[in-house]
Every structure is written in C-alpha cells, then in structure tokens.
Amino acid sequence: MARGKKMDHITTLQTTAIVVSFMLAAGLLTLPRVAVEVAKTPDVWISIILAGAANFLLGWIIIKLSQRFPDSTFYQYVQQITGKGIGKGIGVVIVIYFVCIAAYEIRSVEEVTAFFLLEGTPAWAISAPFMWVSLYLCMGGIGVLGRICQVIFPITAAIFLLICLLGLNVFELNNLRPVLSEGVMPVLKTIKATALTLTGVECLLIVLCRMEKPEKATKAIGWALGIAVSFYTATLILCIGAFSVEGVVTRTWPFLDLARSFEVEYLVLERFESLLLSIWIMQIFNTFSIGLYCASIGVSQILNVSYAKVLFFLLPFIYLISQIPRNLNELFSFGTILGNGAFLLFSLLPLPLLLISRWRGLGS
C-alpha cells in the first residue's frame, strides 16, 4: 500500500481517534472489577493516571522509532534493523498478537450481546455480520478506518458523558474515602492491571507511516491517552462510588450494571444499558477492525502477498481462535494473557530496536 495514495493517509485527528478506539474496548466494562480485585481499596483511580503516564512514555519511544522510517510499517523496518530472518520472526509474533486481540474482541461481543440483548441467538449469527462488515471496511485501507473512528468516537463520548452524569444520582462520595488509607502500595500494585487496559499505542507501529503529518504523532498520542485515561478514571470512580469496593468485585460488568442502576422518567429512554451496549459494540467494532487491519498488513508485507487476499484468509482463523475459551472465565483469562503479552512485547521491544537503529545509522 503505497504512501502516495491519498486514501491511505490519515490526519492527526483521525490518528487520535484510531488510538483512542483501540484503547476503549472490552476493558471499559470490566476494568473496575479487575482493578479493585487487585488493590482491594478505592484508590485504584490513582493507578490509572500513573499507568497513563507510563503508556505515554512507551508511546513516545514507539513514535521515535517509527519516525526514523517514515515510509515503512514496523513489519518492514524491523527487517532492516535486525535482519530479514529475525525481523520476519518478530513480525509474525506481532501479527499473532493483533489476531488474538481481534479474536478476544469478537468473543467479548458475542458474550455480552447474547447475555443482554439477543438471548438464545447462536454465536455465529452475532459475530458473522460484525466480521463481514469489518472486512468490507478494512478493504478500503487505513484512510477509511480513520474516518469511521472519527465519526463513531464523538457519539461514544457524548453517550458516555450522559451516562456518567446520570450515574451521579447513585454516587456516594464516602465510598471513595479515605484516600490512600492503605498507603501507596495497593496503588502501585494495581498499575500493571490498569496499564494492560490502556494498551493500544502499539498500533502506531503500523499506522504512523500513513499519517499526513507524522511529526504530530506525539500530540496525537497525548490527546488519545488523555481521553482514554479520563474515560477509565471516570468509570472507576463512578462504579466504586455507586457500588463500593465490595460491590464492584461481585459484578462481572460493573459499568454496565451502573447504567442499569438508574432510571430517568423525563427522557425518551428510561433505561440506558441498551444505549451503552450500542456504543460499546461500535467501539468494539473499531478495535476489531484496527486489529484485523494491522494483522493483515503484517501478513501481506512479511509474505509479499495481496492485502485483500490476506483479509479473507485471516477472518476464519480469528473466528476459530475466538471460540477457544469455553466460558466467560476462560475469556477473561485469555484477555489477561493478551495484556501480559502486550506488556512484554511493547515495553521490551521498541527501545532496543530504537537504540540499534541509531547505533547502525539506519533510517532518518
């Protein structure tokens, strides 16, 4: 996919929307429970802020690495840095990661949709339209993905803000007090769990070379992380304030339960869980599409085959992987494994590659 094609370029705003969309996925509904289970205190909102700062540092390293090769994706320039054999091996690992991300997101959609919206509907009937529409979208390239993320995110933000404001009706500030009653250790212990939820900056390894103004990538990631941290912090504070620490750990989808815990008679919709699910499914659609795109580009560039053919080839594999977890607990375990894998891959890989490329004088 040549850089010269206008359709394959994305603006700074679209880059921000892509990174935010890749971060705001299944974790939005589950983070309060996951974080509180680790910390066992109401101070977990502090850890999400610290995790955001750590992810910004990681994103900055990724940007500096990718900016040295402004016309190449990670799959291409890693072969220049480490040699073709090792580079292709690293590329395959990254492809597997993005494939697994896509599989995790599609299975999450199946579980939540079947439980809350379409009870009794076969899993394939939920996921098939979702995947085929995403395939059609990805055929248009990163430019189309950027525009759809740019359209969907403001809708998501508006509905999320509405639910947060209405959630104040069941919010109890005392559930968040006293601050740091157990000291800073529970907060520091929870940083890893919250940092895993904020993974998403790694997509810049593939999409930065499509930016019209790659020099503004740091600004894009700063805005993206700021928005994601604000979303997740609000989710944590509202869920703990509404249910308390003890109540949050007993709920599978705490933020969804928050949306179900209040009614507003004077609005068109009295119950908001369906509205929340609709925007959440749109966000999952974005995340799945970005994962599918990044994996397909990788296979295409590693094997030198057609990008369109790879899209059709990967789709059934993603579905098969999504069916491996036998129940919801195994799905959550799969998500934890993915998060740990992302933590190891993208915290340990970019910096050595950046140093080697500078030492060897590669790139610009």
Automatic annotation (TrEMBL):
Keywords: Germination, Membrane, Transmembrane, Transmembrane helix, Transport. The chain crosses the membrane at residues 12-32, 44-65, 86-104, 124-145, 152-171, 191-209, 221-245, 275-295, 307-325, 331-356. Pfam families: Spore_permease. It is a multi-pass membrane protein. Signal peptide: none annotated. InterPro entries: Spore_GerAB. It is found in: Membrane. Belongs to the amino acid-polyamine-organocation (APC) superfamily. Spore germination protein (SGP) (TC 2.A.3.9) family. This is GerAB/ArcD/ProY family transporter. It comes from Paenibacillus ottowii.
